[in-house]
Specification:
Helix content: 55-70%
Order of helices and strands: HHHHHEHEEHEEHHEE
Radius of gyration: 38 Å
Number of helices: 9
Shape: elongated
Oligomer: single chain
Strand order of the largest sheet: 2-4-5-7-6
Bound molecules: adenosine-5'-diphosphate
Number of domains: 2
Largest sheet: 5 strands, mixed
Distance between the termini: 82 Å
Strand content: 5-15%
Length: about 375
């Protein structure tokens, strides 16, 4: 029983000593030896008493700072004993008070030292946890991108022959309804291909792996060609498209393909949600040092409480669930791409009136 208690104490002591910084221990030993030297040389050999005892507070404070309460108390008692023994056998009340002061000041400053050590330990723990969390998060994100990449590969492999064969069929077939069927297959495969690319782009964007190929361009021809591209879809749905460019437009530094992707996405959404007979406007406005591009529609609008949520990945607003079966990838990807350009995206919408989706690009 006694043996095991001693073993436990020895273990605790060795654990404590392991945690004590060796350099601190060496410095403290030197300081204490200097104190002993001063005490015995000045007091015993030369008979000088008094003032030098104040120097004892130096190791005392240092011990309290490094090792807290137990450090301050032990060094305080040690110094008190040295001080007392060097005056033996005539210990005056002053010497006794000084010795007591060492022990008391040692323990009092030690309490503050312990608080500091505890706060530092907590801070280090929080820092270690934060580092671990960050490492886990990074690994998790890399795993996600890796998974998305593998998924994209698996989905694209069977899609490639569908796309190639449907294109070939469109070229070869002359008779209806086979030509229309081939076109349907091709359209479906192309749209699936786009969704798969969006999925990978979004995953890349989330971990900052999406890169832009920036170039200075005149936005007018780009916006006209986008309007041309969407015009057949708009016409087929009985909607009208108005192109309202505040020309001459200043040039912008952008990734042309990515900007096209963003505006087409907004126009496609506008087409999807605008009823027959409705109007879609593609508009530009110069706002100080920014160029704003807006897509306005006369669709069902978006409730106020959902207007920010639709920029979150995989979120589909109430209107989306009624009118479309999308995945909620388009707008978050648009936002990521616009922000990569140093711009911003926003939406202004009123239920049953329509929506305006806007983006700004720095000039
Ligand atoms: P998806 O990629 O599935 O089309 P988006 O990210 O483009 O999704 O859009 C998210 C949601 O925002 C849609 O589900 C829809 O509810 C809403 N939304 C987007 N554009 C419009 C619009 N022009 N009018 C009304 N609702 C819209």
């Amino acid at each position: 029983m006694r043996h095991s208690k001693e073993a436990r104490m020895a273990k605790r002591l060795s654990h404590y000593l392991d945690r004590v910084n060796r350099v601190h221990l060496l410095i403290m030993t030197i300081l204490l030896l200097v104190c002993i030297g001063l005490e015995y040389y000045l007091n015993l050999a030369l008979g000088i008493t008094g003032a030098y005892a104040h120097l004892f507070y130096v190791p005392l404070f240092i011990a309290a700072f490094w090792w807290g309460f137990w450090g301050g108390l032990s060094v305080g008692i040690f110094l008190a004993l040295i001080h007392l023994t060097s005056y033996l056998p005539d210990i005056s009340q002053l010497v006794l008070a000084e010795s007591l002061a060492f022990a008391l000041v040692g323990s009092a400053t030690g309490v503050i030292g312990s608080e500091r050590i505890r706060a530092e330990r907590k801070l280090r723990q929080a820092y270690d946890e934060e580092v671990k969390l960050r490492r886990d998060l990074q690994a998790e994100m890399e795993r996600r991108v890796e998974f998305t990449r593998a998924l994209v590969h698996e989905l694209k492999t069977p899609l490639t022959p569908v796309l190639a064969s449907s294109e070939l069929l469109i070229e070869e077939l002359r008779r209806e309804p086979f030509l229309s069927l081939a076109r349907n297959i091709n359209r479906g495969a192309l749209s699936l291909n786009e969704k798969i690319d969006e999925l990978l782009d979004l995953a890349r964007g989330e971990i900052g792996m999406l890169r832009l190929k920036l170039k200075q361009i005149d936005p007018s021809p780009l916006l006209r060609s986008i309007a041309d591209e969407i015009s057949s879809l708009v016409a087929s749905q009985g909607q009208s498209l108005i192109l309202d460019l505040s020309e001459p437009l200043p040039s912008v530094t952008v990734d042309e393909n990515r900007l096209r992707q963003v505006i087409l996405n907004l126009l496609n959404n506008a087409c999807k949600f605008t009823p027959e007979g409705g109007t879609i406007v593609l508009r530009t406005k110069r706002r100080g040092t920014r160029l704003a591009i807006e897509v306005e529609d006369t669709g069902p609008g978006i409730p106020l409480e959902e207007q920010q949520l639709i920029f979150e990945p995989y979120y589909r607003a109430r209107s989306g669930q009624i009118y479309s079966g999308g995945l909620g990838l388009g707008l978050p990807l648009c936002k990521t791409l616009v922000e990569l350009h140093g711009g911003q995206m926003w939406v202004k919408s009123q239920e049953n009136k329509g929506s305006v989706f806007g983006l700004s690009l720095p000039l």
